[in-house]
């Protein structure tokens, strides 16, 4: 399964809550890996995509734009991506740079092609298991993930 690569102008602000929620859900729940190529200013749109996607590539010219802390949904996206500690770090740090995004594990300083090679054909199944682990009680998430073993044994 090949990755979906999103690039272009990532500097825009987010204004329409309904449409933002809809496209973020599409990105987060896509069955294929969704990668973001950050090559310039990373504004609210870019940060939301970076946090919702499965991976992000930081180009040499990538820089956080003013107003990124006001990204709608920032806390929920950060908690989903890296837990409460990551959300706290993003919200409380005096300044955050694109280098910090890499150090926090939110993006890589590699080309989008190199990043895409990290995702094999079985990623979609593991992504569904990750989503189950994030959204379901532990026992149900574990049963969901272990059901793959039963399916593989039956095959």
Topology:
Blueprint: E1 4-6, H1 17-29, E2 34-38, E3 41-42, H2 44-52, E4 55-58, E5 63-64, H3 74-92, H4 98-103, H5 112-116, H6 123-135, H7 138-154
Parallel strand pairs: 1-2, 2-4, 3-5
Helix pairs in contact: 2-3, 6-7
Mind explaining what this structure looks like?
The protein has 155 residues and is mainly α. The protein is 53% helix and 10% strand. The protein has helices at 17-29, 44-52, 74-92, 98-103, 112-116, 123-135, 138-154; strands at residues 4-6, 34-38, 41-42, 55-58, 63-64. A 3-stranded parallel beta sheet has the order 1-2-4. A two-stranded parallel sheet has the order 3-5. Helix 2 (44-52) packs across helix 3 and helix 6 runs antiparallel to helix 7 (138-154). The longest helix is centred in the middle third of the chain and has 19 residues, at 74-92.
Cα shape: globular
Span between termini: 21 Å
Helix content: 40-55%
Derived from helix and strand composition plus strand pairing, the structural class reads mainly alpha
Strand neighbour order, sheet with most strands: 1-2-4
Tell me how many strands there are.
Answer: 5
Radius of gyration: 16 Å
**DSSP summary: helix tally:** 7
- Beta-strand percentage? 5-15%
- The low-confidence runs, each spanning 5 or more residues with pLDDT under 50, are none
Mean pLDDT: 88
Encode the helix/strand succession as letters.
EHEEHEEHHHHH
Main sheet properties: 3 strands, parallel
């Amino acid at each position: 399964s090949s990755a979906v690569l999103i690039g272009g102008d990532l500097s825009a602000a987010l204004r329409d809550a309904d449409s933002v929620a809809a496209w973020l859900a599409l990105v987060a729940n896509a069955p294929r890996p969704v990668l973001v190529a950050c090559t310039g200013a990373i504004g609210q749109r870019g940060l939301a995509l970076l946090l919702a996607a499965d991976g992000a590539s930081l180009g040499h010219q990538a820089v956080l734009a003013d107003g990124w802390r006001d990204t709608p949904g920032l806390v929920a996206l950060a908690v989903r991506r890296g837990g409460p500690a990551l959300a706290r770090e993003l919200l409380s740090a005096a300044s955050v740079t694109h280098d910090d995004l890499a150090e926090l594990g939110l993006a890589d300083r590699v080309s989008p092609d190199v990043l895409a090679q990290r995702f094999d054909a079985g990623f979609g199944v593991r992504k569904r298991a990750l989503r189950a682990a994030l959204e379901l009680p532990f026992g149900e998430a574990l049963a969901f993930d272990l059901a793959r073993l039963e399916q593989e044994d039956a095959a």
